[in-house]
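INFO batch 0412 | record 1 of 1 | parsing
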Amino acid sequence: MTDLPRTQHIVASGLVAAVGLTVCYISYTQQPAAAFVFPRLISTVFAVLALWTFGKAVLGKTKVGNGLDRRSMMNILPGLIVALVFVFWAANGLGFYTAATAVFFILLTLYDPAPHTEVKTWIKRALITAGFLAVMYGLFAMLLNVFTPREIFF
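INFO prediction complete | emitting tokens
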């Protein structure tokens, strides 16, 4: 049982490395190439860092803490489910910006410790979400000219 944190670290970093390599592969095989310059750059850096972390975990060179207990995993689970729905359905089904806004608002609501019974906190969450959408749109659509999934709304 004393090796559990190290095993958790190896498994988690291995999964992240697999995702990083998959995303990197997909970004390099998509056309038109000009539309994927930014995703290729980011996915390459992500994959290299993920592989580095995985290698350090396998070799036992990382500083491993106590791992995640059941309670911590249960706290993370709702956000993980929302993120998976976003990645596998919502981004294409609702459009990137609409889905990102909904997901951000849901995650903010789930993890914000402010009371859910006060109108003031809901207004604050809505304003933070609107600011998030403005930054996302400005970054991806205007500054980087990145193609995003477009469907129902935009």
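INFO post-check: The CA atoms of residues 98 and 153 lie 7 Å apart.
INFO record closed
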